[in-house]
Write a structure and sequence with these properties.
The chain is α+β, with helices and mostly antiparallel strands. The protein has helices spanning 22-33, 41-48, 57-72, 110-116, 163-173, 197-209, 220-223, 232-239, 292-307, 318-332, 336-352, 357-373, 380-397, 402-412, 421-434, 439-452, 455-469, 474-486, 490-503, 507-519, 523-536, 541-553, 557-568, 575-587, 591-603, 609-614, 625-649, and strands at residues 2-5, 10-13, 16-18, 38-40, 82-85, 89-92, 178-182, 186-187, 241-252, 255-264, 270-279. Helix 16 (439-452) packs antiparallel against helix 17.
Length: 653
């Protein structure tokens, strides 16, 4: 269920905020105003791009649509939310759910709309729930509004007898017991400068804890009726949770004091507590965007699994837990510095608990990721070998641990040797059998499938990953971009690659963009971008090899040959580098070498038949008998692989 809040400009899924920029959000609002109806491109241009705006409207609209679809986990090929009518416009096609309890909102304003709306949780099978009040359509765009917690005013704090409270209580009772509910923080300050701060603090904590795989927690929507609740045991019983976090916020000299206790729901015993100082903002109200929420979320992530008897195995040390969860948080939006820091965190945690296989598994995953995303770094090959070793140790010590199988899957995809994608898929499958909530297992499967050229299966895996993560991680965004590139959707890559480049410094994002620009005919710009990546990362073979193909196609044959000579002399050539070398030789008219390197690329991990078949860089050798024979072999392999995995995955996701 998605929630849209017009006042705050926020999109949330199950209470967790989904990152979405202003223009895609305004586009969503425009489509929701006329849900089920076609909204023309001209209408969208007039509404979202004023006449005096100087930009490429088509490019801007396509970019906004792509970003909105990613936020919703939607696909243009198989739309669940936004349907495209070619050259005409778009239609919002997901169901609009009306609540039976909605009051008459005639004359309501956007300011008080979220106060009066009473949401009815949607069935799980419905991908999007949008409330449509009975007698209110256009004013303040109420037809497309569902409340979101972060902006709820004091007057919304529903009483325990309200229909809202009972509907949410009934809803959570069907979901099974959860580990934790974060109750709205009680405001004890006299001045009440920010009466919604308690809900916003709870919402921030829930958002940060949503991706912690080892615990389950109630979403923001479920805890709204418990503002100023003085009975955490009753709240735990009604919300069906093992623990509640109960907090108070009190004015102090120079700011505020946030106190929090983790209370066991069965008997009301406080099993842990802490307090923090929160600075006052410019208006004197508490600054809830402070790092205190990050610190408190980290403490909870480390301690809730321990007191609940789950989570990190042999978790005798809160210090090891804190390092473990801190490392996992760094991997969620990885950069080179973040992965290095994550590896350091896991290594330090293992020094505290050397036999903890879950920590060892996460260390293996971090090592494998580094070796794949930063192949140009001197440590990459060694870290790939270490990923193998750590995964083997973890799997031997605890073959029933899903993270150990996930580590084995990622280590099998590391580029220091020929990649075994079948092993990647088998181990990811085993991980999901043991824990169906592992979003990274779906990401591992998606990566294997795009290398095979099975793009429809990639789409399904990425939708599953986004659904479990409640958002698009850097890894999911990277895989989506790579898949779009090898599908030949170069405009999509051009439109969206900058967003990925802003989130991570991994060279892959710039390589994807440079490659897409080349195929879109912007050859000089492509050459410049690929050259800049190569200059910034002199040992990055992938950017260097991709640049070689662009140079050869641009007639700079001498420069292309020199790049190929330097690239092929390296001992660290992987399957993507081998493909680019083959494509460069094809552009140079050296067919034998081209086929040799293309065959190596396919044999060592990139048997992506649709790309070999369609890549225009290979046009000069398409009539060659040796290349045609190789392409026929690749097609047969592709069809067998497609048949095997399409049959195995039918109805599995």
């Amino acid at each position: 269920m998605f929630e849209v809040n017009l006042d705050s400009g926020e999109l949330r899924r199950q209470g967790v905020r989904v990152r979405l920029q202003d223009q895609p959000f305004q586009l969503l609002v425009a489509l929701l105003e006329d849900a089920g109806e076609v909204v023309t491109r001209d209408t969208l241009r007039d509404r979202l791009w004023p006449a005096d705006t100087s930009l490429d409207f088509d490019h801007g609209l396509n970019t906004a649509i792509n970003k909105l679809r990613r936020a919703l986990g939607d696909s243009p090929d198989k739309p669940r939310f936004i349907e495209t009518l070619s050259k005409h416009g778009y239609r919002f096609i997901a169901p609009v759910v009306a609540t039976d309890d909605a009051p008459d909102l005639s004359g309501a304003t956007a300011a008080n709309l979220t106060v009066d709306l009473i949401p009815t949780p949607a069935p799980v099978s419905r991908p999007l729930a949008i409330l449509e009040p009975r007698s209110y359509r256009r004013a303040a765009i109420a037809a497309a509004v569902i409340f979101a917690a972060a902006t709820i005013a004091t007057t919304f704090l529903a009483s325990r007898s309200s229909p809202l409270h009972h509907s949410l209580t009934a809803w959570v009772s069907t979901r099974g017991r959860a580990d934790l509910a974060v109750l709205p923080v009680r405001i004890l300050a006299d001045d009440q400068r920010d009466p919604s701060a308690g809900i916003r603090i709870a919402d921030a904590l829930i958002t940060r804890l949503a991706n912690v795989r080892s615990m389950t927690l109630r979403p923001t929507a479920a805890i709204l009726g418990y503002a100023n609740s003085a009975d955490p045991v009753q709240a735990a019983r009604e919300l069906d949770v093992a623990h509640v976090l109960y907090g108070t916020l009190q004015k102090g000299p120079g700011g505020y004091r946030l106190s929090a206790q983790l209370i066991r729901g069965d008997d009301g015993v406080a099993v842990w507590g802490t307090s923090y100082d929160i600075p006052a903002g410019a208006d004197g109200a508490p600054d809830t965007e402070t790092t205190v929420t990050v610190q408190l979320a980290s403490e909870l992530a480390a301690r809730v699994p321990v007191v609940a008897g789950l989570g990190v195995q042999n978790a005798g040390s809160a210090d090891a837990n804190a390092l473990y969860f801190g490392g996992r948080a760094l991997l969620q939006n990885y950069t080179e510095a973040n992965i290095r820091a994550a590896v350091d965190s896991f290594e330090r945690a293992l020094r505290i608990e050397p036999r903890n296989t879950r920590i060892r598994s996460e260390l293996s995953i971090a090592l494998a990721w580094f070796s794949r995303r930063y192949t140009h770094e001197p440590e990459a090959a060694e870290w790939a070998r270490r990923a193998d070793v750590e995964a083997d140790v973890a799997l031997k010590e605890n073959p029933a641990l899903p993270e150990a199988h996930l580590a084995r899957a990622y280590a099998a995809g590391a580029p220091h040797r020929a990649v075994d994608w079948q092993l990647v898929l088998a181990e990811a499958d085993k991980a999901l059998e043991l824990d169906a909530t592992l979003a990274l297992a779906h990401a591992a499967r998606a990566e294997a499938f795009y290398h095979f050229g099975l793009f429809d299966l990639v789409d399904a895996e990425l939708r599953a990953a986004v659904r479990l993560e409640l958002g698009v991680s850097v890894e999911a965004e990277r895989l989506e971009l790579a898949t779009a590139l090898f599908r030949g959707r170069f405009a999509q890559v051009s439109d969206t690659a900058e967003e990925l480049r802003a989130r991570t410094d991994a060279p892959a994002a710039s390589i994807y963009l440079g490659t897409a620009l080349f195929y879109l005919g912007e050859r000089q710009r492509a050459e410049h971008l690929l050259a800049s990546v190569s200059r910034e990362n002199p040992s990055d073979l992938r950017s260097r090899a991709a640049l070689g193909g662009a140079l050869a196609a641009n007639g700079k044959r001498t420069e292309a040959r020199e790049i190929i000579r330097r690239t092929t002399s390296s001992p660290h050539v992987d399957h993507h580098v081998a493909y680019s070398v083959g494509a460069t030789f094809a552009q140079l008219g050296e067919t034998r070498q081209a086929v040799q390197w293309l065959r190596r690329a396919a044999d060592e991990g990139f048997p992506c038949y649709p790309w070999f078949r369609d890549d225009s860089l290979l046009a000069p050798i398409r009539s060659d008998a040796a290349f045609r024979s190789f392409l026929d072999e690749l097609r047969i392999r592709f069809e067998a692989t497609r048949s095997r995995y399409t049959r195995a995955n039918s109805g599995a996701i």
